[in-house]
Amino acid sequence: MTSEIEILQHQSELPGRRGRWLLVIVISAVFLTGWMLSPDDSGSGTHRQLGLPECLLLQATGVRCPTCGMTTAFSHFVRGHWLAALQANPAGALLALGLAICWPLLVLSLTGHCVAPGTWLMRRLPVLVMGWLALAGGYWLLSMLIRSEF
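-> structure tokens emitted (150 positions)
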């Protein structure tokens, strides 16, 4: 017979398990989409194959936004063209690498073979996302400073 404590422990694990399943599905969808698209030769614009419009910042100012080239980076990454992914968008290539590392850890944690990495990842996900956003924004600001005429 299951005790009330065991039932409560199981119930408290469910949101984390659902979150890991959701991440596995989303990461799989992102990589599948990257595989289905052909990387744009310009280093940006691959997202237009999905019916999305051109970047408004790029269109209005001629300046690439922090996410310009990210879909192209993923499309190159899934094909093993890592240098081309870095050239398209370094933050996108780093995100693709991070997700490629996280995916098997999440799957292993869902099968019960290796729970610790999946749990560690879920607890630190907000910090990891904020770190990636800071890196992407920092790279964009640095590229803006390099291009400026100061």
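The helical segments are 4-36, 56-61, 70-77, 82-88, 90-111, 115-147.
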